[in-house]
Design brief:
Chain lengths: 375, 109
Amino acid sequence: MKDPAVGSSAFGGAGAVKALLREIGDEAAKLARPVTFMEVCGTHTHTIGAAGLRTLLPERIRLVSGPGCPVCVTPVGYLDQAEALAEAPDIVLCTFGDLFRVPSSRGSLEQLAARGKDVRIVYSPRDALELARHEPERRVVFLSIGFETTTPTVAAAVQEAETSGTENFLILPGNKTVPEALHALAADPQVALDGLLLPGHVSVVTGADAFGFLPEQYGLPAVVAGFTPTDVLQSVLELVRQQAEGRPALVNRYRRVVSAGGNRRAQALVGEIFEPTDARWRGLGTIPGSGLRLRSHVAARDASALPADVPEPVEPAGCRCGDVLKGLIDPPQCGLFGRGCDPDHPVGACMVSSEGSCAAWFRHERHRLGAGADG
Amino acid sequence: MCLAIPMKLISRTGDAGVVELKGVERKVSLMLFPDAELGQHLLIHAGYAIGSVDEEEAAETVRLLEEMTEAEERMGLRNVADGAPDGTPDGPATGPGPSGQAGPAGPAR
């Protein structure tokens, strides 16, 4: 079997991978029924695809991708609002590059920039803050999306803006929290998960303990996983074992990076700047307490409160991004996959972001698919 | 998403740090990880250090990032939005976003 990336991985090469696969096979044979595990993080999706792990694992173990790509779960209405804001001549939009090509109801940020509106790709919210300092006559709106890894950097930039009195630095809040989304998925009978691979670098900030509710409330095995193929397989082995033995638990298999309590400083700063609010997720709908809005003392920096002519959001026709994000279908089961939707001409967000499930499948797993999806 | 890049802290003044990977230096804020020590490999995300890793872990993560970049290049997935590294690490027009940054290893998700 072809497994190009597996052999070259550090922390255990091809031999370790083969031994792990054997062990997983032995454990899987003990299972009463096939199981479905969800990897929540887009980087895990990449590792699994690049190393061909889906084909190497026993058939009784299905790996599905979850809502772990912030660009993908950002609803169309967020982009529509950003575009509407850009109509004001003194507004500059600053965005992470991921969001640039994502289709909105009427176009995309890329198309907006092509029409001459001021949209800039930044590497850090600090770059947007710096721009605001240099151009005090303009309002700089940072498009703030991301999970726990990213949110503290925005909180820090807002704090710096407060300290330096940079009043023309605003954000359009779109940050989301992973544990609340996993609550929703774990409680959804349609999704029917048997265990979760938890995101590595999100957990650097939240700490592994933030996910203790998965085994405690839902009886779901949960493992914080690193990013190498060996990491992923060790974590899958842990999940299968827990299922086979009927003892769900939270296990941190990424202790070399992730602590139990996480980055307390980052958590505290996020708590000073933001407060929880309900948020809409593409595919998952509105999840209580899964979003973040600016607290009242910094509410003047909230660009969502600015007047803007926002159209009724229109999701791309035929796009099943939502079902992909819930793990209900694999990307090739969408009628558009490879037939009008590909990374060069993406219809939905999951094909735009390179960490989106559709892009990862298109890149790595097309060889397993039928002729129709080879487009 | 949410991949941070390990880079080595080579100097700091208060919360302003300079990190390095493969000869490319970048200014970062240590505001979220004030205990950072010189020589430590820090996890850098969107211009901020959020944690640290040991040397072996740093090397492995960088290797993974390079592999992802190569995969994207092979597929022709890289585009203007991915912000190819342009040698101006602190310029506002580099880097992809919350999923990772355009470090010296290239756009990394």
